[in-house]
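Re: zinc ion structure - here you go.
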Amino acid sequence: MRICRFTDPSTQRPAFGAIEGSEVFRLEGDLSAGNLSLERSEPSIRLSDARLLPPVTPSKIVCVGRNYREHAAELGNPMPLEPLLFLKAPSTIVGDGDLIELPELSRRVEHEGELAVVIGRRCRRLPPDEDPLAYVLGYTCLNDVTARDLQRKDVQFTRGKSFDTFCPVGPYIVTGLDPSDLKVETRVNGQVRQSGRTSAMAFPVAHVIRYISQAMTLEPGDLIATGTPAGVGPLLDGDVCEVEVEGIGTLRNTVRARAPEPKESLTDV
Ligand code: ZN
């Protein structure tokens, strides 16, 4: 099943839907409220009439750093012995087709194409005999956009990872997917920059979910960015960046240099 969030043309409000071919069937409820129904309701609307929104509105975005050996090596970092976690602000979220804005404060913004996990059920302190994948609603594509210069300068990751528009996600959530060996590819202006397989992760998806759940409660709609393969590189004004995950689809965003803030005019004072 392919689950999207869209602006319902009849109510002008956000709704969830199931995409089938060129149609969208409405789904009742809300993922973040934990009451999303996967029962399709009639009638459908045309996909071309539904403006797609980011498929999730997470309470948090938990990211795994250095989960691919070659990527850790390209940044000169050792491999962690346990998953290295950090957070992105939920206000970074944008959807397929939205702009990635380059902030004036950074001179080096980079793409990180990743497989993202969408949590479907609340989970907390998962015991060893519980299957973490049973708490997953599905998977989507994510671009963990990073101001690399600020990440290095600040030592920790918060600011460099959390500028507005720094988390393109989508275009939709795919259910019933086995995450253990999927191709993850990032292209800039059609040129392949990153290409890896999730089978190369140091810490597989199930391990990561169980590990995170020992520290914090994962809520329905929360996102886990599972780490990026080697090949991270700069994003420049006008670039079109695509993250494609096998079995899901392609997340496409255009990059724009953020226009300078208008200077306050003295005559207005
Ligand atoms: Zn990342």
